[in-house]
């Protein structure tokens, strides 16, 4: 089936099998390997991408379901060089170790702060509780997201 | 600018982070080779049985399928996975074949490999496989294992594979005259490391060069190359193991599993690159499980609360086979049960028993988490019985600084003698009480606040590190003036590129930006022993220090020849070589050709980090839910390389421990079927579970056993968490007389204990 989607601001049209997941489409067809697969049953959150502004588990969505929609991956939330304020806050707070959950944390946090740049600690924890990190114990991740709020308040929607 | 000693001890931001944060890490799943095909593993749906036949004909005819590989294809003798640690000959019988060929011993055991054009097509074909298995009675617990009506290994005739014994002093004599004794049975549930990136490999056989390349190596690439070479009948020089980014390990990832052989075998069999990435259900069935043990242990104490002795017997459920490191947790439970306490008399035995469940291996703090649960519970029970404050009882029993080095119990078989190397347990204990605010919080003990009972507890631990025999490092001063550091240590996501660069930077007196670290892969250094037993920083780091000294000698020699003086007359300062007579030359200008030096750090003595952890919990009597209000920990690591990454390890370890204490449980039914095969069933800590954790890491007593003075510290605070939380729950529910003897303290279990107490 032909699917036309906008991925990180670029329109692409690809012929895909109906059973292809959005995650596999991004990783295998578009080579956007920043989106990680940790469970493929919608629990771990590592594959989270932003579809029309909402954080979505790309392992639970089919590529064909994304037809006509706009998708942002962790690569799309990164600039050509350097780190965005959200990424810099993660680095500063040592909010990542093995890095495997990190893209999903970044996309989830970005979707949250874009909608709610003043989210409190409890709200941040609640939203991030859908993403599993096995290394950090989450505390530095919550700290990083709270710190990154300032950048989103300054410039609504900026990564 | 002088940079010596500026990097070690500084919380420098990690060099790994930018690529991970921008989605540009390269994990094994991101590796693709031209012409690659995909493997899936056919696994047994039956826990125990005789494999009568495998019919792969229909699968082989399915679209896109290239091969169906069974044990028959592996040659006349199916290779088995050897033991990497404690390779005792009496354990040979229990080694796992790469593919089951006669008998099935657990659900998930590999029986065949299907290779197809895509993972989806391979999975389609998997549905067409027909396995003829004659079921045998399953053994899923200690009772059935000991009864012996059904045995996993007929040639052995019993489900007890081996007994490990830890002995010190004369426990029988101590018990004969002890003022107080108490004997209890404790159980720790089966759970697992559950790193987030599933395992995987890409293997490629170069027929012309007769060379095999395997991407996806982790933890112990060199040891696995040796095993793979043996199984594939290749020389080690024909195999290159490549370590790419690794999404967590915690002891489980990187050990040699059947797939470590099957994927390279398939690649050579088909002469095409083969890729295999584990799915999560498969991971829960196939990767090492851990921790399941039952401990019947007795403590002997004086009237004043001095612990005289520990004795008892434990039964470790090791599952269906003994894996590469399957003896570690059972033996550690016995040897390290005394922890940081001066207990002169020990007689502890652990039986490793085989059952029809997934084989077990190490998971962060192997055997130590289990043993600490038993010991810390017994101390609190004894203190309560004797009317001694449990804080005071711990003070009376911790090994004092004057008693260092302090020998632990000696293990047999595979004799092992070890001693606590250095430390001030009492100082760390008092600091933990202070950081936690014990004096205030203990006042809330047993009180009902907002419908929940409050409890506090404190527990102490030791963490062994720096396993030998050695580690290799090689440093190359490149022609562009950069230093490339190669080390045999492996990354399992703990940030060793940064740590090793800090150590190298200080040793070479150059800034971080001039250093590039490569690690883990077999082509970089002559030998490597990898990352386990909290060894990477101490062993790899010490090797780097030695290699840097040698390299500086070579640079001085090159400068001497350029400056026309003796090497002894050259000083190196901020990358300028100066002669006593006045001449100078930039170091980079000396490297017309790369200058390199290699060194090996040998070590026979372990390091022991140590510390204390305190917890404040609130238990809801209506639901049995245990909320962790606050945790504070202290740990002495001798010398910190990077305080930020170290604290990250501490907090992460505590939260993993809380998962084991409260949430995580691999549940089997009586037929040996795993009931918790998804992350919706196997509960892990999440971001809103444990928000208040405060870790303090100190540098008090350097290890005398390595040039850095550092102690291995990556496992640490997970070790006492089971006992810590159980003791806090016991205190919270003291009015009910609830005494937890089994983990996890899940809401149903706690609720049942409260309900049972109310009935009596």
Structural class of chain B: alpha+beta
Supply the CATH architecture of the largest domain in chain A: Roll
Computed structural class of chain A: alpha+beta
What CATH calls the topology of the largest domain in chain B is Aldehyde Oxidoreductase, domain 4
Distance between the termini of chain A: 33 Å
Could you give the count of β-strands of chain A?
Answer: 5
- What is Rg of chain A? 15 Å
Sum up the overall morphology of chain A in one term.
globular
Give the end-to-end Cα distance of chain B, rounded to a whole number of Å.
74 Å
Q: What is the mean pLDDT of chain A? A: 96
Tally of extended strands of chain B?
30
Domains of chain A, number: 2
Give the largest chain-chain interface (CB within 8 Å).
A-B, 55 and 59 residues
Shape of chain B: globular
Describe the SSE topology.
The complex is a heterodimer of chains A (159) and B (760).
Chain A lengths: L1 E6 L2 E6 L6 H8 L18 E4 L2 E4 L12 E3 L12 H8 L9 H14 L5 H8 L10 H16 L5
Parallel strand pairs in A: 1-5
Antiparallel strand pairs in A: 1-2, 3-4, 3-5
Chain B lengths: L16 H5 L15 E7 L5 E7 L1 H5 L3 E6 L32 E2 L5 E7 L2 H8 L3 E6 L6 H6 L12 E9 L2 H7 L2 E9 L11 E7 L4 E5 L5 H12 L6 E4 L15 H13 L3 E4 L2 H7 L6 E9 L5 E13 L8 H8 L9 E10 L13 H19 L3 H8 L8 E2 L2 E3 L6 E2 L4 H12 L1 H4 L6 E2 L2 E14 L4 E8 L5 E5 L8 H13 L6 E5 L16 H28 L6 E4 L2 E4 L4 E3 H4 L4 E8 L4 E13 L6 E11 L6 H21 L29 E6 L22 H12 L14 H13 L1
Parallel strand pairs in B: 1-12, 10-11, 14-15, 22-23, 29-30
Antiparallel strand pairs in B: 1-5, 2-4, 2-6, 3-5, 7-15, 7-17, 8-13, 9-10, 9-12, 13-14, 16-18, 19-20, 20-28, 21-22, 21-27, 24-25, 25-26, 28-29
Helix pairs in contact in B: 6-7, 9-10, 10-18, 14-15, 17-18
Structure description:
The complex is a heterodimer of chains A (159) and B (760). Chain A has helices at 22-29, 85-92, 102-115, 121-128, 139-154, and strands at 2-7, 10-15, 48-51, 54-57, 70-72. Chain A is an alpha+beta fold. Chain A folds into 2 domains: 2-77, Roll (Ubiquitin-like (UB roll)), CATH 3.10.20.30; 85-154, DNA polymerase, domain 1. Chain A has a 5-stranded mixed sheet, with helices on one face. The longest helix of chain A has 16 residues, at 139-154. Chain A is globular. The mean pLDDT of chain A is 96. Chain B folds into 3 domains: 17-25 and 467-602, Aldehyde Oxidoreductase, domain 4, CATH 3.30.365.10; 31-136 and 198-246 and 253-286, Alpha-Beta Complex (Aldehyde Oxidoreductase, domain 3); 293-466 and 605-759, Aldehyde oxidase/xanthine dehydrogenase, molybdopterin binding domain (Aldehyde Oxidoreductase, domain 4), CATH 3.30.365.10. Helix content of chain B is 27%, strand content 26%. In chain B, a hairpin with a 6-residue loop joins strand 28 (607-619) and strand 29 (626-636). In chain B, helix 14 packs parallel to helix 15 (536-563).
């Amino acid at each position: 089936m032909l699917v036309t989607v906008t991925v990180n601001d670029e329109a692409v049209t690809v012929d895909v099998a109906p059973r292809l997941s959005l995650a596999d489409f991004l990783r295998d067809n578009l080579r956007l390997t920043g989106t990680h697969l940790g469970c493929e049953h919608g629990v771990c959150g590592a594959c989270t991408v932003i579809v029309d502004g909402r954080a979505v588990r790309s392992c639970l969505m089919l590529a064909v379901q994304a037809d006509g929609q706009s998708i942002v991956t962790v690569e799309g939330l990164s600039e050509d060089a350097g780190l965005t304020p959200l990424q810099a806050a993660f680095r500063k707070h040592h909010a990542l170790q093995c890095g495997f959950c990190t893209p999903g944390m970044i996309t989830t946090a970005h979707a949250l702060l874009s909608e709610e740049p003043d989210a409190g600690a409890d709200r941040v924890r609640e939203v991030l509780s859908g993403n599993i990190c096995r290394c950090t114990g989450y505390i530095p991740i919550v700290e990083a997201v709270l710190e990154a709020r300032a950048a989103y308040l300054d410039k609504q929607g900026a990564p | 600018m002088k940079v010596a000693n500026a990097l070690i001890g500084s919380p420098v931001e990690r060099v790994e982070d930018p690529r991970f944060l921008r989605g540009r890490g390269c994990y094994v799943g991101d590796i693709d080779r031209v012409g690659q095909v995909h493997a899936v593993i056919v696994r047994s749906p039956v826990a125990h049985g005789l494999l009568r036949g495998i019919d792969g004909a229909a699968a082989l005819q399915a679209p896109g399928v290239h091969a169906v590989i069974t044990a028959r294809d592996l040659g006349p003798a199916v290779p088995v996975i050897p033991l990497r640690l404690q390779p005792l000959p009496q354990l040979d019988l229990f080694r796992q074949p790469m593919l089951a060929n006669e008998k099935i011993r657990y659900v998930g055991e590999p029986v065949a490999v299907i290779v197809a054009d895509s993972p989806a097509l391979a999975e389609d074909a998997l549905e067409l496989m027909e396995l003829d298995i004659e079921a045998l009675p399953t053994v899923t617990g200690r009772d059935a294992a000991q009864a012996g009506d059904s045995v996993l290994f007929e040639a052995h005739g019993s489900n007890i594979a081996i007994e490990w014994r830890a002995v010190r002093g004369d426990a029988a004599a101590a018990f004969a005259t002890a003022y107080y004794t108490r004997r209890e049975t404790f159980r720790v549930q089966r759970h697992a490391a559950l790193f987030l990136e599933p395992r995987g490999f890409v293997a490629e056989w170069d027929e012309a060069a007769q060379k095999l390349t395997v991407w996806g190596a982790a933890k112990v690439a060199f040891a696995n190359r040796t095993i793979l070479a043996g199984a594939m009948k290749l020389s080690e020089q024909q195999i290159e193991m490549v370590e790419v980014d690794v999404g967590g390990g915690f002891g489980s990832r990187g050990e040699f599993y059947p797939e470590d052989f099957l994927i390279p075998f398939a690649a050579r069999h088909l002469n095409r690159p083969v890729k295999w990435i584990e799915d999560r259900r498969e991971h829960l069935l196939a990767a090492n499980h851990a921790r399941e043990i039952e401990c019947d242990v007795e403590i002997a104490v004086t009237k004043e609360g001095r612990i005289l002795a520990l004795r008892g017997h434990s039964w470790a459920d090791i599952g269906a086979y003994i894996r590469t490191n399957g003896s570690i947790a059972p033996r550690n439970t016995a040897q390290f049960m005394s922890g940081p306490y001066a207990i002169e008399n020990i007689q502890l035995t652990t039986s490793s028993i085989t059952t029809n469940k997934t084989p077990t291996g190490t998971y962060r703090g192997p055997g130590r988490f289990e043993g600490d649960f038993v010991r810390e519970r017994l101390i609190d029970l004894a203190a309560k019985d004797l009317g001694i404050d449990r804080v005071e009882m711990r003070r009376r029993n911790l090994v004092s600084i004057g008693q260092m080095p302090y020998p632990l119990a000696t293990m047999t078989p595979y004799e092992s003698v070890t001693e606590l190397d250095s430390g001030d347990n009492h100082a760390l204990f008092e600091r933990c009480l202070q950081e936690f605010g014990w004096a205030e919080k203990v006042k809330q003990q047993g009180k009902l606040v907002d419908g929940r009972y409050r409890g506090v507890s404190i527990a102490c631990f030791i963490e062994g590190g720096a396993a030998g025999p050695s580690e290799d490092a090689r440093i190359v001063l490149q022609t562009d003036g950069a230093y490339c550091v190669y080390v045999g240590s492996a990354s399992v996501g703990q940030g060793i590129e940064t740590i090793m660069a800090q150590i190298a930077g200080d040793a070479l007196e150059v800034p971080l930006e001039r250093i590039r670290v490569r690690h883990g892969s077999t082509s970089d250094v002559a030998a490597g022993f990898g990352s386990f037993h909290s060894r990477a920083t101490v062993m790899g780091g010490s090797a780097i220090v030695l290699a840097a000294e040698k390299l500086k000698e070579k640079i001085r020699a090159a400068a001497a020849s350029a400056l026309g003086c003796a090497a002894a007359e050259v000083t190196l300062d901020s990358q300028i070589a100066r002669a006593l007579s006045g001449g100078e030359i930039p170091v980079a200008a000396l490297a017309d050709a790369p200058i390199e030096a290699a060194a090996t750090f040998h070590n026979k003595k372990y390091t022991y980090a140590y510390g204390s952890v305190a917890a404040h919990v609130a238990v809801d009597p209506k639901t049995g839910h245990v909320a962790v209000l606050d945790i504070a920990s202290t740990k002495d690591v001798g010398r910190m390389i990077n305080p930020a990454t170290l604290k990250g390890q501490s907090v992460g370890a505590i939260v993993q421990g809380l998962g084991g204490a409260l949430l995580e449980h691999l549940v089997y039914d009586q037929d040996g079927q795993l009931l918790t095969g998804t992350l919706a069933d196997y509960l892990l800590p999440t971001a809103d579970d444990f928000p208040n954790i405060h870790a303090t890491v100190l540098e008090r007593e350097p290890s005398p056993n390595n040039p850095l003075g550092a102690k291995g510290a990556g496992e640490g605070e997970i070790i006492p968490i089971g006992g810590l939380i159980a003791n806090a729950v016991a205190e919270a529910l003291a009015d009910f007389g609830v005494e937890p003897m089994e983990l996890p303290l899940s809401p149903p279990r706690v609720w049942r204990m409260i309900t049972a107490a109310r009935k009596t």
